[in-house]
Amino acid sequence: MNMGSRKYAVNSYKSGAASEIDGASPHRLIQMLYEGGLQKIAVAKGAIQRNEIATKGENISRAIAILGGLRSSLDLSQGDIAVNLDNLYEYMERRLLEANIKNDEEILDEVSSLLRDVKSAWDAISV
C-alpha cells in the first residue's frame, strides 16, 4: 500500500484508533480498514432506521472512502485476484451510493456481507 492511498484510507477509518494505526503492519492496516468499513455501514443502517439523514450520508461516504483507499492500494499488475478485488470494491462503492440515494437497508446488508466475506479471507492469511 503506498503512503498516499494508505493515508487516505486510514483517515477515513480513524475514530479513536490512532495508536493502533501507528504501529500496525500492512496486513493489520487492511484488517482495520475492513473493520472500519463494516462499522461505518452499520452506523449508516442505524441512521436510516432513525431517519438521521446526515449521519447516514456521512457514514456511507466514509465507507466509500475506505473502499476507495482499498482500491487504490491494489497492484493490478499482480493478476486476477487484484483485478477481481478492484471490480468488487467498485461494485460495493456503487451499491453504497445507491443505498444512500434510496435509504435502502437491504443494499447495506448486501455490501456488509460482501465485505465480511473478503475480510474473512484476508483474516485467514497468515503473515
Structural summary, described in words:
It is a single chain. About 80% of the residues lie in helices and about 0% in strands. By secondary structure, it is mainly α.
Helix coverage percent of residues? over 70%
User: Strand-and-helix sequence, N→C?
Assistant: HHHHHH
Largest sheet: none
Please indicate the percent range of residues in DSSP E strands (runs of 2 or more): under 5%
**What oligomeric state best describes the polypeptide chains here?**
single chain
Strand runs, count: 0
Q: From the alpha-carbon coordinates, what is the Rg to the nearest angstrom? A: 14 Å
Structure annotation, total helices: 6
Distance between the termini: 16 Å
Structural class, by secondary structure, is: mainly alpha
User: What is the average per-residue confidence, as pLDDT, rounded to a whole number?
Assistant: 90
What coarse outline follows from CA principal-axis ratios? globular
Poorly predicted parts: none
Itemize the secondary structure elements and their pairings.
Layout: H1 3-13, H2 18-22, H3 26-49, H4 53-72, H5 80-102, H6 105-123
Comma- or semicolon-separated keywords:
mainly alpha; 127 residues; 0% strand
Concise overview:
By secondary structure, this protein is mostly helical.
